[in-house]
Every structure is written in structure tokens, then in C-alpha cells.
């Protein structure tokens, strides 16, 4: 008997192609849509048996928030994450959010269908090697997402940390200088040193890196190097 499915992916062409292939195999595909921001609402409103939810960055913080919401509001829906070759952390994050499995973008349609049937039956639908790596990451998290932020923070002096926080707040050189009571030339030198230590080429990149690694959150704890 066919499964009531939804396919939600940022890449509409991929979503529609997969939906068409699954329809040909006798499944009832409720929708093939691509609204990344509205994925959870769409799945919650249609309540399929299984949802294939696409992602391009399985290790990105917060990427599985839609899974968390779907499982909170529609716990009976089995969510299969559809994505690229993942790291153990990405797999672990998907399961931690409540996903029933992970299907690679390059999987054959037969493999996708097997995963769907497993998910509907309440089984973990993921390749054994990926599952082993994910469980290892969950049981022994050797590299938490904010470890990189801690490492970067140790490279900066307390003054450079303050400069980075101000850069992330959108302050220009003049505002940084005024806020810290230093000359604009000194502020400019501090900014350049921060960019060099972080290995980025612009203030925007520095702010994005700081936000992504949790460096700004750690900066507030005073855990910085000399």
C-alpha cells in the first residue's frame, strides 16, 4: 500500500522530480514544495505519514528547527531528512531533533523508498555506517559546535574581543574608537588584527564567523586569551 508523503526541499526541481518518481511507484505525494521558512507549517497543516525534508547544510546550527516543530505538533509524522553526504554531527543533530532517518541526495529511488517504509514502521532509516557515526557523536561529542568559537576566542586578546563584538554590532571605525576611548588609527589596527587572526577578509565575514561559531556568546563569559 502506498504511503502518504510530502516532499519539501529548497530546490523545487529536485522536490518535484522525487515526488514524480514516488508517485510512479504507487505513493500518494501530498505536495512537492520548496518554502524553506514555511516547511514546518506546510507539513503540520497536511499531516502526511512521512515527510522528506531537504537541507543543504545538515551541520548548520538551527537547520533542523523545522523538524523539532513538526515532531512537537505532529508527533505521528515521520520526518526523513534529505541532504548531502553528512558529517556524524549532522546525522546526530537530525536524530536529536526527532528525525526518523537521513537519506542522501544521491540515493537511488529504491533506497529512498526503503527508507520511507522503515520510517513509517517506526524504524531508524539511515545507512548503518552513518548511524554508527551519529551514535558515536551523540555518546561522545568530541567536537561540540561551539568548540571552534572557543578556539578562535583564545586567539584574541580581551581588547580584540571587544573590537569583534563592536564589529558584529555594526559599529564603524569611528564608533569603535569613541566607544573604547582610543584613536581611530588604533581602532583600525585592532580591526585588521582581528580579521587576520580569524582568517577572514572583511568585517562582515568576521561577524558571520563569530555568530556561526558561538564566539560572541562565549565572549560574554570573559573566556578569552591574552
UniProtKB/TrEMBL annotation:
PROSITE patterns in the record: HTH_LUXR_2, RESPONSE_REGULATORY
Short name of any one Pfam family annotated for the protein: Response_reg
Domain Response regulatory: 4-120
InterPro entries (UniProt xref): CheY-like_superfamily, Sig_transdc_resp-reg_C-effctor, Sig_transdc_resp-reg_receiver, Tscrpt_reg_LuxR_C
Record-annotated HTH luxR-type domain positions: 149-214
Assigned keywords, A-Z: DNA-binding, Transcription, Transcription regulation
UniProt-recorded name of the protein: Response regulator transcription factor
Organism listed in the record: Streptomyces lancefieldiae
Amino acid at each position: 500500500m502506498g504511503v502518504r508523503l510530502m516532499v519539501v526541499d529548497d530546490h523545487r526541481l529536485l522536490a518535484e522530480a522525487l515526488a514524480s518518481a514516488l508517485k510512479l511507484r504507487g505513493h500518494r505525494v501530498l505536495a512537492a514544495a520548496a518554502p524553506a521558512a514555511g516547511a514546518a507549517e506546510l507539513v503540520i497543516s497536511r499531516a502526511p505519514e512521512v515527510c522528506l525534508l531537504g537541507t543543504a547544510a545538515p551541520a548548520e546550527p538551527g537547520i533542523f528547527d523545522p523538524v523539532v516543530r513538526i515532531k512537537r505538533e505532529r508527533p505521528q509524522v515521520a520526518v526523513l531528512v534529505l541532504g548531502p553526504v553528512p558529517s556524524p554531527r549532522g546525522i546526530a543533530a537530525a536524530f536529536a531533533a526527532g528525525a526518523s532517518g537521513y537519506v542522501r541526495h544521491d540515493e537511488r529511488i529504491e533506497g529512498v523508498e526503503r527508507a520511507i517504509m522503515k520510517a513509517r514502521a517506526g524504524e531508524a532509516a539511515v545507512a548503518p555506517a552513518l548511524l554508527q557515526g551519529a551514535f558515536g557523536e551523540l555518546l561522545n561529542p568530541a567536537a561540540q559546535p561551539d568548540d571552534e568559537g572557543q578556539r578562535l576566542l583564545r586567539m584574541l586578546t580581551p581588547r580584540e574581543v571587544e573590537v569583534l563584538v563592536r564589529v558584529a554590532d555594526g559599529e564603524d571605525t569611528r564608533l569603535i574608537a569613541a566607544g573604547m576611548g582610543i584613536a581611530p588609527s588604533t581602532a583600525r589596527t585592532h580591526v585588521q588584527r582581528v580579521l587576520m587572526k580569524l582568517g577572514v577578509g572583511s568585517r562582515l565575514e568576521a561577524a558571520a564567523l563569530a555568530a556561526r561559531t558561538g564566539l560572541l556568546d562565549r565572549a560574554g563569559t570573559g573566556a578569552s586569551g591574552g
